[in-house]
């Protein structure tokens, strides 16, 4: 048989998701139950609350994904599940759900690293060409990954403190915007100008690592100083200036990495790749250097299970398997 059909399951943070993907490239179904509205009133994701909602949703979402895909259980090749990294209680719901379904239907189980899922969301847009550089920027991650072939991942840059999305969420909170702050900052920034000179953390010469804690403190100090002086805050200018600083560092370091490995493609993925300034500046920079750029559509940038099934397809074809002793791992290495 030529088709590879994989059911993917993702529960690492606050989205319960299941999807069926054909050959790692075609989405047959993509079901997501978001908990954003539930966590908003707490100002962030509450792990225990997340786990409970995953428990409520996991069966329904898996059934929805299977129904919509019009694929029979007996036609599936495997079940792929996010093993980590993420919130341990949340991960366990997906892992145990996947184990139960794999056992019940006699299917192989394929463990997937969440970051590789974000990278593989790009394969729904275009076939990957190697070597490539992927920038994964989300609420939990800021990673530059070098891939020389399918399923091979070398992390060549990472954050030394906050993830890019975390910085967005914290600055949004400082500006009184609701969780998750990234999209709110993005929208607010459109009404402002990047006129405030916030720092850019380049770190040591040649380093591909990131740091956002200095920028975060600079923005918070700026806000406090302005308030103390009794000035009206121009939140839109603050948002635009903060966003410009994050974007400039992300774009420049990604381009340096791409040139260093002679990348044939640059991929961007994770929640922050939904950011309008990151997208436009990355597009401009990649075009100037003549390197093809792929960024998934917004729906595939944030957590979903189609990306887990896509990465799981590669794992499945390479023979990666887990047995029923599989456990979630909060800080799983790539
Ligand atoms: O990939 P994702 O859904 O979950 C994680 O794996 O973390 O990413 C969520 C993060 C949040 O921090 C959110 O604020 C950020 O992505 N985000 C954005 C935008 N949309 C989502 N950050 C900046 N601009 C956006 N438009
Ligand atoms: Zn994610």
From TrEMBL:
Keywords: Acyltransferase, Cytoplasm, Iron, Metal-binding, Transferase, tRNA processing. It is found in: Cytoplasm. PROSITE patterns: GLYCOPROTEASE. Residues 27-309 form the Gcp-like domain. Substrate binds at residues 136-140, 169, 182, 186, 275. Binds 1 Fe(2+) ion per subunit. Fe cation binds at residues 114, 118, 303. Its main location: cytoplasm. One of its GO terms (molecular function) is tRNA N(6)-L-threonylcarbamoyladenine synthase activity. Required for the formation of a threonylcarbamoyl group on adenosine at position 37 (t(6)A37) in tRNAs that read codons beginning with adenine. Is involved in the transfer of the threonylcarbamoyl moiety of threonylcarbamoyl-AMP (TC-AMP) to the N6 group of A37, together with TsaE and TsaB. TsaD likely plays a direct catalytic role in this reaction. PANTHER family: TRNA N6-ADENOSINE THREONYLCARBAMOYLTRANSFERASE (PTHR11735), TRNA N6-ADENOSINE THREONYLCARBAMOYLTRANSFERASE, MITOCHONDRIAL (PTHR11735:SF6). Belongs to the KAE1 / TsaD family. This is tRNA N6-adenosine threonylcarbamoyltransferase. It comes from Sporolactobacillus shoreicorticis.
């Amino acid at each position: 048989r030529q088709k590879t059909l994989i059911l993917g399951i993702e529960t690492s943070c606050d989205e319960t998701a299941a999807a069926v993907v054909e050959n790692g490239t075609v989405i047959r179904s993509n079901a997501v139950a978001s908990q954003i509205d539930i966590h908003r009133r707490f100002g962030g994701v509450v792990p225990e609350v997340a786990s409970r909602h995953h428990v409520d949703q996991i069966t329904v979402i898996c059934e929805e994904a299977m129904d919509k895909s019009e694929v029979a259980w007996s036609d599936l090749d495997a079940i792929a599940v996010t093993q980590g990294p993420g919130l341990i209680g949340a991960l366990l719901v997906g892992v145990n759900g996947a184990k139960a379904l794999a056992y019940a239907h006699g299917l192989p189980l394929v463990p997937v690293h969440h970051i590789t899922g974000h990278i593989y969301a790009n394969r729904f847009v275009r076939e990957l060409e190697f070597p490539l550089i992927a920038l994964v920027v989300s609420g939990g991650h800021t990673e530059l990954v070098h891939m020389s072939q399918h399923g091979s991942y070398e992390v060549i840059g990472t954050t030394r403190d906050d993830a890019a999305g975390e910085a967005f969420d914290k600055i949004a909170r400082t500006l009184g915007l609701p969780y998750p702050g990234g999209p709110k900052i993005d929208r607010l920034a459109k009404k402002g100008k990047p006129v405030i000179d916030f720092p850019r953390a380049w770190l040591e010469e040649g380093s591909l690592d990131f740091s956002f804690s200095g920028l975060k403190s600079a923005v918070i100090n700026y806000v406090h100083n302005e308030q103390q002086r009794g000035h009206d805050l121009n939140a839109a200018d603050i948002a635009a200036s903060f966003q410009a600083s994050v974007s400039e560092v992300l774009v420049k370091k990604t381009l340096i990495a791409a040139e260093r490995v002679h990348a044939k493609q640059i991929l961007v993925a994770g929640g922050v790749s939904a950011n309008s300034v990151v997208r436009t500046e990355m597009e401009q920079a990649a075009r100037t250097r003549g390197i093809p750029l792929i960024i998934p559509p917004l729906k595939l940038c944030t957590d979903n299970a189609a990306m887990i099934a896509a990465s799981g397809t590669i794992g499945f074809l390479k023979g990666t398997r887990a047995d029923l002793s599989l456990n979630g791992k909060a800080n799983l290495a790539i």
